[in-house]
Amino acid sequence: MNTPDNTPKMVPPDQLDRRTALKGVTLGAGSLVMAPLLQKVAAAAEGKAATPKRVIFIVFDNGFREIDGTLPEGVPLESDKLRQVPLKGLKLPLDIEPFAPFRDRLTILHGLRGNNAVDHGGYFAALSGIPGNKHSALGTSIDAALAQALPAVFPLLGLGVSSGGPTTAYCSSAWAAGKPIAMQCQPEMAYESLFGSVGAKRNDFATRKNLLDFVSTDVKRLQTDIAGPERDLLEAHLEALESLSKRNGQLSEQYQNGSLNKHAPKLPEKMGLVTEIAAAQCDIAAAALAAGLTNVVTISSGLGGLMGKYSGICNGDGHGLGHGGVDKDLPLKRKFEPLSHYHNYLASQAARMLTKLQETKEGTGTMLDNTLLVFMSDSANQQHSWKNANWPIVLVGDLGGKLKTGQFVSYPVKAQRAGGDGGGEVFGTAFGTNPLTNALYATLLTAVGKPCDAFNRSPSSSEAKEVHAPLPELLNR
Amino acid sequence: MKTILTTLGLALLTHPAVAAAEPAADAKSVRSFLDAHCVRCHGKKAPEGNVSLSTLSLDSKAPRDVETWKRVYEQLFNGQMPPQDSKQPPSADREFATALIKSSMKTAGVKFDELKELLPSRGNWVDHDALFSGKAAGEAGTPSRVWRLSPESYKQFFVRLNGQFSLGLDHILGPSSSREGPLKAPWGLARKWDFTDYSSLHRISGAEYEHHLRNCAVFAKKIVGKVNGSPSFKTLKVALNAGKAATPAQLEAAVAETFDVVLRLPLDPAELKARSENLGKLLQSMDAPSAGEQFLISVLCHPEVLYRIERPEGDARRGSMAPRHTARAIAFTLTDREPDDLLWQAAVEGKLGTSEEVRKQVERILNAPAIPKPRLLGFFQEYFGYTTAPDIAKCTATVNEYQLSHNGGCEFQSGYATRFVSDTDRLVEWALESDREVLRTLLTTRRSFWKGNYPASYHKRLDGLLEQKKRNAERAAKDGKFVDETNLNTELRKLYEQAKAEFQGGGSDGMWRDIYGLQRTDPERHWADVLWHQRDNRVLIAKPRTPAPDYDEWLAGKPFDAHPEERMGILTQPSWLISMSSNFDNHAIHRGRWIRERLLGGRILEVPITVNAMLPDEPHRGLRDRMRVTREAYCWNCHKSMDPLGLPFEQYDHFGRYRTAEIVVDKEKTDKDRAKNPLSRRTMTSVPIDTTGTLTDSDDPKLDGPVKGPFDLMEKLARSERVEQVFVRHVFRYYLGRNETLADGPTLVVAHKAYRDSNGSFRALLVSLLSSDSFLYRTQPVKERK
Lengths: 477, 786
Fold this sequence. Notes:
The complex is a heterodimer of chains A (477) and B (786).
Chain A: H1 18-24, H2 34-45, E1 54-60, E2 83-86, E3 106-110, E4 118-119, H3 124-128, H4 142-149, E5 157-161, E6 168-176, E7 179-184, H5 187-195, H6 204-225, H7 231-256, H8 259-263, H9 274-290, E8 296-301, H10 318-322, H11 337-358, E9 361-362, E10 365-366, E11 371-377, E12 384-385, E13 393-396, E14 407-410, E15 413-417, E16 426-430, H12 437-447
Parallel strand pairs in A: 1-8, 1-11, 3-14, 5-8
Antiparallel strand pairs in A: 2-14, 3-13, 4-12, 6-7, 9-10, 11-13, 15-16
Chain B: H1 2-12, H2 15-20, H3 23-37, H4 63-77, H5 91-107, H6 128-131, E1 142-143, E2 145-148, H7 151-164, H8 170-173, H9 206-226, H10 234-242, H11 248-263, H12 269-285, H13 288-300, H14 303-306, E3 307-310, E4 318-320, H15 323-335, H16 341-348, H17 355-366, H18 374-384, H19 396-401, H20 417-434, H21 438-444, E5 447-448, H22 454-479, H23 486-504, H24 509-516, H25 523-533, H26 551-555, E6 560-561, H27 574-579, H28 588-599, H29 623-626, H30 633-639, H31 643-646, E7 661-665, H32 667-676, E8 684-688, E9 693-695, E10 705-707, H33 710-719, H34 721-736, H35 745-757, H36 762-770, H37 773-776, E11 777-779
Parallel strand pairs in B: 1-11
Antiparallel strand pairs in B: 2-3, 4-11, 5-6, 7-8, 9-10
Helix pairs in contact in B: 1-5, 3-5, 4-5, 9-13, 10-11, 10-13, 11-12, 12-13, 15-16, 17-36, 21-33, 22-23, 34-35, 34-36, 35-36
């Protein structure tokens, strides 16, 4: 846990230019994340390095339903009051049952609300809390904001899970408006970036670094020929090359001293099914965290929209299943059951990650002590979630004692029957005065040492401060 | 005021010229602008928003004044001031004033996002009348730039390598996936509202570069494996075989040869030396095959593999590009791939130096059916925006409620809409085949395609089989030996049967026909089926009225004639209507916005962040009724430019089906049913539709006025010269990858004339644009005033 003595020394940004900055540090992203890392470097130089905090986001499609999904047995969905119920002794529903071993570190949040209705995936809107065009990065997403606060070789490790989708996708996270972050959807490629080629006999990172340094000269030469605004595009290209070069330099050192090999996971032979890809991405994320290569991971299942198929769970199409389609091969054949099984599978993979971190010593405790998992859907509680829909979110971990855990926290929620294909199933609606998801994001930033009164709050917002402010029910001040 | 500023504006609007103006003159001009358009509200006494501009001077660099200027700039740049209901300054004056303010602020150290100003959404901000005034406003030319290759161009480069060096990588270049996975470009172009591929839009990120490196590694390994047996790499083979002992001369020869065969790129001496030394270092530090691979990856990372590089040749401030870059610009613009041999040859022989020489090459490519030209269709797809239909899923309940799936269980899935997109693609191709009055045809044709892609694939297969028969006959005539054609005849019979079956359709094909309003073979029986399936409900849909297409005509690839009251042009095609819809509704606002921007050249401001753009959740009311919220004063300022243009398309439902009434929820019955059983489905009823609309503020006096419905609207628009000019502006943007400026005015005038003189030939329009100074010349901005 941070103490006042560990407070990093601030380096005035105006004392650093981009090139100077890059000479001293290793990065995986552009200049937006550099200042905190430099501050960390400055702090480390003075022997004040803090134990790093880590945050993992697992974000999935098609909604996170309350009934059978997030509500512990015996706890009603509806209440017109704030509730804080200890989880001890309560049975967890199927979706999150794999988190039972971490019950004392668990928080189930109900009653937060989004800014807008969501149809077929929240994309960038989910992690930014910014309404409007969900397909565009309109501002910083919470994972990126945390990554800027928790710098590492890979500031934000973005991994995607999709059925036959693209190699990389821009879907959920952004450094800033117009600066989306790519999710790597092929585990082999993510592995190679982090740990090098499987079975490599030489230091690929050193070779790669030399190559990148060499090709950078081409771009620099070209830059002198272009004088208009598009010169900035080449500047971004150059920054990308330099960042990759620095990162490969650092990975090269870790390769040489054996630390990469020590943490590299073993990838399965087969990775065709969605479940296999999800498992591999979780393994890679856990290894990257354990190796200290990153402090923030986002795993986007469904890439912000809808999964084509949940292969490995059932054969129905993702869109139909989100409308309550059933699978005759599953035991209960109830609406949304295939989604529950998929959530259960994701939760079990997340639990494996948490276990790995729990097994890794750090200071006087384990890495899990300083870690938080955020388990949520990008479209609140259903595929077509309405405005002010209840947005259930499950948290595991307390970030070094910064968060209160072991509780079910619910802001006032009204139960409502869905029309159309929801077929009359009950979902929650948050009261219009409840906190937005932005308030949780402000809480997380505050918990990692970046006090935040409001995250992505519109300057013209007339809503009460409490709608955006850090949640006192979660935060240990 | 207008005269002064416009005159100055026309002379100074290009950035270099603005930068070169005198500060005192700048300050005076901007002061005049503020006095004319701002100080009435932002004067000395009780200024609006407590912001007074009465004494603000551009000469002041006081921090507080700089902050105020920044706000003034933002408001003017985004069109938020003067307010919508006030008299607006001419666009040229606004642009001139903002350019001067910006230039002055930059001198004061304020940073601007220059790329934001180049966004496609800013295209219509250039004054239309000034563009087509025929007066030159500066010298035409595209600023020097790099333009990231399109995903298709990127991929075609690797396709070419695979073929050229027989690398055997077809399996990763084709559509089928394999253990290695298909090769994909590191970036994509997401379908969106505006044009997707401007030179200013795309940068290469670290993740994308890593992806590129992986692609390069696969190809480099394969090429190195071929070096020993390939006549293309004689000197590289020597250098690799020599390994650590390779001499500088051997290395230089290997590098020069590799760049020649891989990129057709001659290197200057300095670059040749640097790359040779690098190859030498690689050979010293690793085994020869690995060194070869690393060297080849470095070649494949050359900027020309990733970008179009466009700058004037030599040190000129304005001039033609080097011939190889002109050749690349022509090829990527038209064919989405590198130049063909004839174009390279023209570049090498210096035959791309004049507009006439370029015109010949462009005409050659456009007139060669064998050369793929995906960017012809690509323009119309992005301009009309009809390809986003598959992104808009319609759920099963909605399909049922709209009485679409009477044959049971059929879901209107996302993928279903791709069929309509293909049909509209075919309609565009059909219009381009005749190449006469292309825009007018696409706006007003009564013809449509249904399963429009099938005939082409049928004929390809048929031609293959008939060719086989012909060869057999020739062989028989030559050798006297007859080939057993039993299998061949079976294949032919199967093909005929498949075509018949395709035409008859079945399953979800029924819905495809229904949305077009096409009758079945036995229309009365079909309608009786519909009535039977809806026996417990009121029938809320219109009876199909368009006769089923003629089989022979369909198979000949011809379109069918829609019922004369039902379809007119692309804007009444299901693909466009679905693209401009939401999951559950028509999107009259998007439809209107499209017409305002793409046909009338109007500007729509961004939705203010304070607006939570939602229609009331009242499924028992019609869309026009629910859109009453947009008619509230605050919203109507913008919505009056869109809604009255989009509402005529209420003639169709959000599946693109012609209708005579709008299907809505029967609230009374639904409430009653759900009181008994909360799980019961909604009951639907219908309300009358109103397809009237209004054309306003078009700047074309012949256009403005009420319209009765979509046909009336389309006919008016298709007759307008202004609409045609706006179309030409959009063609310019797509193919030049940037917005037009006033300096491009003469180019647009000539291009429009070429289109008109050729009776609306799209090819003539393209030839004109691609042989213009705007396309061929590049400019370097002068250094800004310090």
